[in-house]
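tl;dr need the bound structure. longer version: we got a ligand (ketopantoate) that a collaborator sent over and nobodys looked at where it sits. i said id run it. heres the input, straight from their email, havent touched it
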Amino acid sequence: MATTLAILGGGAIGQLLAMDLCQHRHSPLLLTRPETTARIIQHQLQRLDGSIQQASLPHAPSNQPQHCDAVLVTTKAYQAESALTPVLAWLPPSTPIVLLHNGMGPQQRLAQRFPEHNWWAGMLTDGALKLESHSVRHTGQGVRYLGPLSGQGQLPDALTEIGFISEAAILPRLWQKLAVNALINPLTACYGCTNGELARPGHRAELQRLSDELAAVAKAEGIAMEAEQILAWCLSVAEATCSNRSSMLQDVSAKRPTEIDAISGFVVERARAHGLCADAHRHNLDRVSQLSGCTKT
Ligand code: KPL
């Protein structure tokens, strides 16, 4: 049966997931800012094999009640809480909300602030590039995972069909993605390089130091991740998305706010809480904050 999945966050990843759902004959609904009007928009996706997929997708303002079987949140980390506010005003509390943004912090805050809602979280490592407002290129095949935060019941099968793997314990996966983002995103933003260029031997010492610090912080948080494992994940994602400009590099280049607070900032904050050193992550936090001139949590 066709499932309606609302997608909050019309960036490259939100559009990629919408087109994947379409391909599996489901009905994505893109939720837009409250002041916008409902309309149908033609979207285009260039797939990894070079083929072009086109689809007309419905867009609706996020403050108007809609029928949907789940909401996928693909906003930037610092936008998730404010973007969800109008949605939470009409969404039945039992409808699953899946938080897919980079970084950590908003997931825990939202689940605590709105305990009546059905919270799930996930991560994906696909690379995607927005070419124009409604035109996206899939630039790297990734892995996709999701699982309950405080959520109960079942998620629509449509999510499995588009490649999400269910995990009973999602927190280790969120840390895994955090680790990848904490190594790749700030360095690519600072050096202005692609993900693939970061995998070259010249950057290995810096990546190793970031991995060492992160493994110690994760351990203190009860998450088992070896530094060598973190480095290996980072290198494999960097290679799988080698031509990609990370989302943080794109944000810095476009002079938009970055997710540095929810990525390096979160690592630094957790390190401080455990009395651990995270100087390399602190250095990245400072450098990217200076580059973008504006960060938000
Ligand atoms: O998540 C990403 C990002 O750019 O934010 C990766 C996986 C690093 C792909 O570029």
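gonna send this back to them w/ a short note. The chain has a mean pLDDT of 95.
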